[in-house]
């Protein structure tokens, strides 16, 4: 039986927490709840969480601060909930790391749809894999469930899009992907960016996971074709 996605719901209104929890559990998610920011951070540091629904107006620690602290170490998908309807407030929420945003009052059914959509975008093509992938005697470690990357046992912070591109490559080691193929597999057909932005993502990933980004050993350029991921440094490149 496939493991369930685990959702953390953080809101200081018990009635909202109860309703959201009931709807998510009905949709076959595992749900953990918190009524304040400090408790939310403690849960994130001790549990495997796949997505967080986060209210901004929280006791002990604001939702904005919770989001900032999570983003300092993790690419955990975050949907923000707030009573603030002002456009500037919504932009601020996105700028500090939220992936999606709902203004109160909101439809719980819409929230569940957004949860499923964000999970699909974030964990596309990676659910059948082992939880943790380790390469070259621990030089590089990817935790699929926590969406984290370690280089020589130190956390490196990839953006959500960088992690998606890396995931496509490492789940198909040795396979060459063109820019167009990477865009389609990482972001879907409805992606509104340009395929050339893949080059930027690759450059940024190399800066974070390669010993020498100018002479990469993990993500190799196949000239005239695209990119591929090499999982073992012992493999010979021609």
Write the layout of secondary structure elements.
Layout: E1 6-10, H1 14-26, E2 30-34, H2 37-46, E3 51-55, H3 63-71, E4 78-82, H4 87-95, E5 100-103, H5 108-122, E6 132-135, E7 140-143, E8 148-151, E9 154-156, H6 160-170, H7 179-187, H8 197-209, E10 219-222, E11 226-229
Parallel strand pairs: 1-2, 1-3, 3-4, 4-5
Antiparallel strand pairs: 6-7, 7-8, 8-9, 10-11
Describe this structure in words.
With 238 residues, the chain is α/β, with parallel strands linked by helices. The protein folds into 2 domains: 6-122, Response regulator (Rossmann fold, 3-Layer(aba) Sandwich); 132-229, Arc Repressor Mutant, subunit A, CATH 1.10.10.10. 37% of the residues lie in helices and 20% in strands. The chain has 8 helices and 11 strands. It has helices at residues 14-26, 37-46, 63-71, 87-95, 108-122, 160-170, 179-187, 197-209, and strands at residues 6-10, 30-34, 51-55, 78-82, 100-103, 132-135, 140-143, 148-151, 154-156, 219-222, 226-229. Residues 125-129 have low confidence and may be disordered. Residues 6-119 form the Response regulatory domain. Keywords: DNA-binding, Phosphoprotein, Transcription, Transcription regulation. Residues 130-231 bind DNA.
Main features:
elongated, Rossmann fold, single chain, CheY-like_superfamily, 5-stranded parallel sheet, 37% helix, Sig_transdc_resp-reg_receiver, 238 residues, alpha/beta, Arc Repressor Mutant, subunit A, phosphoprotein
Give a quick summary of the entry.
With 238 residues, the chain is an alpha/beta fold. It is built from eight helices and eleven strands. Keywords: DNA-binding, Phosphoprotein, Transcription, Transcription regulation.
